[in-house]
Design brief:
- This protein has a single domain, classed as Nucleoside Triphosphate Pyrophosphohydrolase (Alpha-Beta Complex).
- The chain is globular and about 45 Å long.
- The chain is an alpha+beta fold.
- The strands form two sheets. Strands 3, 4, 5, 6, 7, 8 and 9 form a seven-stranded mixed sheet that branches.
Length: 171
């Protein structure tokens, strides 16, 4: 039996990313509590980035382009395990090579109060997109992504724009 998204259990964390409680996703978001998430940037051999268009049924930023895969870290789960799970659930990827941890982002209003770890994964596709989560996907070149982020393209989620800026600064 599937648990409704709002009832998923997540760890509540403090500013140091230490677990201090467990609450439902709905409670955490309603109360603005800090919790954990991952974002995975999937690149192909041409260095194009795969982005996903969030389903119109999503409760947060529906219909906007987002990271290749992303999600909340479930209670008791670690970041790395969550990244592998999200790649499998959202894109149908069976992770066979290592994920590269790129950087951490401290919880803030930009991330929705989520401590976030961003990973890079290399894969050529094709992908088996999860229809409940994703309306469509597309490959985009780094230069096209740079241009869209520079002009503050509002068809991209704010967290993807933030992640891309940090990625380009550091890599």
């Amino acid at each position: 039996m599937l648990i409704p998204v709002s009832e998923e259990l997540l760890d509540v964390v403090n500013e140091h990313d230490e677990i201090i409680d467990v609450k439902t996703r709905g409670e955490i978001h309603a109360l603005g509590l800090m919790h954990r998430s991952v974002h995975i940037l999937v690149f192909n051999r041409n260095d194009d980035l795969f982005i996903q268009k969030r389903s119109m049924s999503k409760d947060n930023q529906p219909g906007l382009w987002d990271s290749s895969a992303a999600g909340h870290v479930d209670s008791g789960e670690d970041y790395h395990g969550c990244a592998i799970r999200e790649l499998e659930e959202e894109l149908g990827i069976n992770v066979t090579t290592s994920l590269e941890q790129l950087f951490r982002i401290q919880a803030s209003t930009i991330t929705g109060m989520e401590h976030c770890i961003v990973y890079r994964y290399m894969n050529e596709g094709p992908f088996d997109l999860q229809p409940e989560e994703i309306d469509e996907g597309a490959w985009i070149s780094g230069s096209d992504m740079d241009a869209r982020v520079r002009k503050e393209d509002l068809t991209l989620t704010h967290v993807l724009r933030f992640i891309w800026k940090k990625f380009r600064e550091d890599y």
